[in-house]
Amino acid sequence: MIRLTYVESIRENTMARDRCKHQWRMTNPRDGFIVTEKCYHCKASRVYFSYEDVPPKDEYKEDAHYWNYAGSAQSAKFDMECAKCGKVVTFEELMGLMQCVQCDAACYLNTLSKICESQNVWLYAALSYKAGEEIDLPEEKLEILTAHFTGRLRTPGKKIIAVPGSLRKSPDTCKGEMLKDVGMLSLTPET
Amino acid sequence: MTVKDLGSKLNLKALNDATDTEVEGAFISDMLSDVMAGAKAGNVWVTVQTHKNIIAAANLVDVPAIIVVRDKQVPEDTLQMADRVGVTVFATNLDSFQIAVKLYEAGIKPTT
Q1: For a tag on chain B, would you pick the N or C end, based on fewer CB atoms within 10 A?
Q2: Do the Cβ atoms of A74 and B31 come within 8 Å?
Q3: Residue B76 has pLDDT above 60, yes or no
Q4: Where does residue B20 fall: left (phi above 0), alpha (psi -120 to 50 degrees), or beta otherwise?
C-alpha cells in the first residue's frame, strides 16, 4: 500500500511537471575552458570543455590524429531548471552561444539572421559538441534557451531564438565566435 | 534616465550613437558568462573587455549600453557589431570602482 502511494505520488509529480508552464533559469554553473585542438596531419579540428584549473596544452596521438593545442578561452557551462516545478535539464553538450557576424553571404545562418534582425529577432547558434565532434542541440533544449533568454528581455517586440549550429555553411570557415572570455588570462595591470 | 543622458551626466565618451533607451541598474563584470547569468535587461554594463563578443552578450540579455573602463581601446569590429544591434559603447579613463560611484551618484541604483 505504501509502495503504491509512493508510485502514485511520483506519477502525480511527473504529470504536474508535464503540465507546468516552465519558467527556466540557469543552474549548476561550472567554470572551465573551451579548448580547441587541431590535427596537424589532416587539419581536422575539435573542441572540448576542460574543467581543469589550467587549460591542457599537451600534444598527443589518438587513432590517426595528432592533436595540437590551438587555443582556449575561459567559459562556463550551465544547466536549466524550472523555477516552478523544479525540473532540471542538463546542457552538458552545449559549448556556447554564437551570434552570426555575417561573414559569408552564402551561409544559411547569415541569410536567416538578416531577415530576422529586421524584425528585432536575434538568432544565436547553440554550438554543441559530443566527443569533440559538433552536434546539434536537441530541439527541446533549443526551445528552453529561447524561452529563457526571450523571457528576460525588456525591449518590446525583441526576441532571442536559439538555433542549431548546423545552420552555418561550414564550422571551419565560420568567423562567428562563441560567447566566451577571450583574452581573460592575458589581462594584466597597466604599469 | 536614458543612455544618452547617462553619457552626458557621467562625462563618458560615446564611441557610437547614444540611444534614448532607458537605463535601469548596472552590472559590473569582466566575464561574459557572468553577464549571461546575472545581468538584467536595461542594466548598463561596466567592463574592461573590448572583444566583439561583449556586444553579442549585451544583446542577448538586453543590455542597452556598455562602459569600457580604464581607457581600453575598443576595436572597430566591436563598434560595427554594436551599431548592428543598437548597443551604445562608452569609454572612460576611470576604473570600475570610480564608475560605480558615479553611477550611484547619478541615481543608477542596484537592481534586484
Answers
A1: C
A2: yes
A3: yes
A4: alpha
**Domain spans of chain A, in order of start:** 19-181
The reported pTM is 0.88
Tell me the ipTM for this assembly.
Answer: 0.93
> What radius of gyration do chain A's Cα atoms show?
20
Exposure string over B35-49, b if 16+ CB within 10 A, otherwise e: bbbebbbbbbbbbeb
Nearest to A52 by CA among A32, A36, A37, A78: A32
- pLDDT value at position A73? 86
Q: Test A154 with B62 for CB contact under 8 angstroms.
A: yes
Q: Does B31 sit within 8 Å of A117, measured CB to CB? A: no
Nearest by CB to residue A180, choosing from B52, B53, B85, is: B53
Q: Looking at the partner chain, which of A29, A155, A182 has a beta carbon nearest the beta carbon of B51?
A: A182
B42 vs A contacts (CB less than 8 Å): 154
Question: Cβ contact (<8 Å) for B59 and A99?
Answer: yes
